[in-house]
Amino acid sequence: MRMLVLLTIGIAIGALCGSMATRSIAMTHAYPRGVMAVLQVRLGNARRALDATPACDPDLARSELAALAGFIPELSPALEAHKEPRLLELSRQMQAAATATTESAEPANCAELAERVAQIAHACDACHQEYR
Ligand code: HEC
Questions:
Q1: Which residues neighbour 65 within 8 Å (Cβ) at sequence distance 6 or greater?
Q2: Residue 78's domain spans which residues?
């Protein structure tokens, strides 16, 4: 009888630990995936503003680019859970690209804005080539 009780307690504790581990692994991905989803939408908005027909609206494209760049600081904290030094280095490079975009003089026209958006998209791809 005693053995049966101990066995039952053992199984219950094992199941609990297992589900806690699964939850924590799921959370490791939930945060970065959420941030990535927002980045994806904002990148899409910026591209759509640039590709608008009949003509690109520079004011809209500029504000979409600012919205995209403004969310990039969320990247590093979201990727910290992965505990990969290289990943954090790549997200710092992405941050540098975003800071350069926001701090340098306002791009005057759609061609310059498109160049900035392409730089950010390139930094997304650079990291995805190594991780994803
Ligand atoms: C420093 C590295 C890094 C950068 C920069 C980066 N990503 Fe990611 N991305 C990842 C990783 C890692 C994953 C996988 C996340 C996970 O499952 O934990 C990912 C996954 C994604 C996903 C799939 C999410 C899902 O639900 O599976 C999308 C979409 C995405 N990234 C978009 C972007 C966009 C857009 C940018 C640029 C604005 C960007 N990423 C920049 C590392 C990066």
A1: 46, 101, 107, 113, 116, 117
A2: 29-130
